[in-house]
Every structure is written in C-alpha cells, then in structure tokens.
Design a protein that fits this description.
four-stranded mixed β-sheet
C-alpha cells in the first residue's frame, strides 16, 4: 500500500516530494525525495530522503495523537466552524443583483437615448466579476465548514486508535505533510497541525 497525500512538501526549498523506488546496494525500498534533488543536477537542496514506512508511521501517529486528545481538538473545531459561519462577505450577491438590475435599466435608457453608456457597461462588468468572486468565496467557506463538520463527526465517532496505515482515511483527513530536518508536520484538512519527531 503506497503513501498518498495531496501535498508532501519539503520545508527547506518548498518543493514537493516524489515517490521513488530505491535500490541501495541491493536493498530495495520506496522512498520520497525532493523533486529539486531528483530533477536538477547539482541542486543545493539538502532535504532528507525519507522512507515511505517512516511517513506512514508518522501519519498514523499524528492521527492517533489527535484521537487520544480529541477534546481540545473538538473545541478548536467548534470555534473554527463558528468562525467560518460568521464570516460574511461584504458584498452579498443580493446587493450585487439589485445594483446590476438598476444598472441594466440605466444601460437601456442610455442606449435608447443614444447617449454614451460605456461607464454603465464597465460597472456592470465589474459587478458581475464581484458577484462571481462572492459566489466562489461562499462555496469555499461552505467546503471548509463541511470539512470541519466531517472532522468533528469523525472524532466523535472514533473510539479506538488506528493500528495501521489506511490510505482512504489519510486521503480524507490529511491536507499536507511537510518534512523538516527533525520532524514531520502533519496538517489535517481542518487546519489542525501535529508535529511528529523523526
């Protein structure tokens, strides 16, 4: 079973890691190496090569640490959910729609009168873009709220520690893993991060 995380990053140069089949003096293993070390000859990146089993163990340990101390994490998650729900977009789409309607009426009047309507048309385009951005932000907030709620449900339902690496669970829970010289930082999709010493 391979290690699969959306983002495995190197703290030194910020580049991503790539999975490599390694053959070192007849001993075959799977390791992860910084892309800059793999692709750039003479790269000065000194990020460590890390064994896949080490990564898997660190992720399992981080998940178990989260499960063992879930009460403080649940409290943080509840605060994060409240923050996401309270985030309001300065320009609600209803306000933008009302402004667009008024401007479209002005545009028709200006066009019928054969007056210059370029400024009104420009404002309509600007408001349409503003509305699109507001809709994207709303969707992102809803996605974040849903991830936080799912993490809360997972923590409430999980009664025992994880005994072995579970790829599906990792894909569902983990946002990114960052490799440092002395530790591996595991960041959950709920924005909670746990450091595991190497």
């Amino acid at each position: 079973m391979g290690f699969r995380v959306k983002k495995l990053r190197n703290q030194k140069c910020g580049d991503i890691y790539r999975r490599v089949h390694w053959n070192n003096r007849g001993y075959k293993s799977i390791v992860w190496r910084c892309v800059s070390r793999l692709e750039e000859k003479g790269s000065e990146c000194t990020a460590p090569t890390i064994n896949e089993e080490t990564l898997q163990a660190a992720v399992v340990k981080a998940i178990n640490e989260l499960l063992a101390n879930k009460e403080p994490f649940l409290s943080v998650l509840q605060k994060n959910i409240a923050t996401v729900l309270n985030e309001e977009n300065d320009n609600t789409t209803d306000d933008i729609d009302r402004n667009l309607e008024e401007l479209q009426q002005q545009l028709l009047i200006q066009a019928k009168s054969k007056n210059d309507y370029e400024d009104v048309a420009d404002e309509i385009y600007r408001l349409r873009e503003l509305k699109q951005n507001a809709l994207v932000e709303k969707a992102e907030r809803e996605g974040k709220r849903q991830r936080l709620a799912e993490m809360t449900d997972f923590l409430n339902e999980q009664s025992c520690e994880l005994e072995e690496y579970d790829e599906q669970l990792v894909r569902w829970l983990i946002e990114r893993v960052t490799v440092h010289d002395d530790r591996i930082e595991v960041e959950f999709k709920s924005s909670i991060a746990i450091d595991i010493e190497n």
